[in-house]
Structures are given as C-alpha cells and as structure tokens.
Amino acid sequence: MRVHARPGRRIDEVEAQWIAWTLLGPGGSYRVPVHVRRGPEGRYAEIPYGSGKSPA
Fold first, then answer.
1. Cβ–Cβ under 8 Å, residues 49 and 29
2. Residue 45: what pLDDT?
3. What is the rounded distance in angstroms from the CA atom of residue 32 to the CA atom of residue 51?
4. pLDDT for residue 26
5. How far apart are CA 9 and CA 41, in angstroms?
6. Count of alpha carbons within 13 Å of 30, Cβ hemisphere only?
C-alpha cells in the first residue's frame, strides 16, 4: 500500500510507522515482514502487508 503525503507536507519516519500500525493494528501482517519505506523527501510511505486470504 502506498500512502501519499498531503501537498506541501512530508511523511517522516515516526509518521510512517504510525500509519503502518494504524493500518495493521497490533497483530501486524500475515506471514509478511513489514518494512515501511518512505519515498524521496517523504512524499509517500509504502507498507507491504499480507491479508492471509487464499484465492481458493
């Protein structure tokens, strides 16, 4: 998931971690290590996660 900063703002490391915790909750992600990455100059934060759902 990619979360973009508002125009004229940036996402710092603390805010990026807060966004991840807000999205995933205390249980984290299903079988996927969560590595929050920020884009250049904090323009966005990327948070990979797994839903634990099977297509079958």
1. yes
2. 96
3. 9
4. 73
5. 10
6. 5
Answer yes or no: pTM beyond 0.90: no
Q: In sequence order, what DSSP letters do the residues of 19-44 get, joined into one string?
A: HHHHHH-TT--SSS----EE-GGGSE
Residue ranges in the chain whose pLDDT is less than 70: 29-32, 50-56
Pairing of strands 2-4, 37-38: unpaired
Q: In the block, which residue shows the tokens 């929050």?
A: 36
Any idea which residue has 């999205």 for tokens? 23
Backbone φ, ψ for residue 4 (5° rounding): -95, 145
23 CB neighbour count, 10 Å cutoff: 13
Cβ neighbour number for residue 20 with a 10 Å cutoff = 22
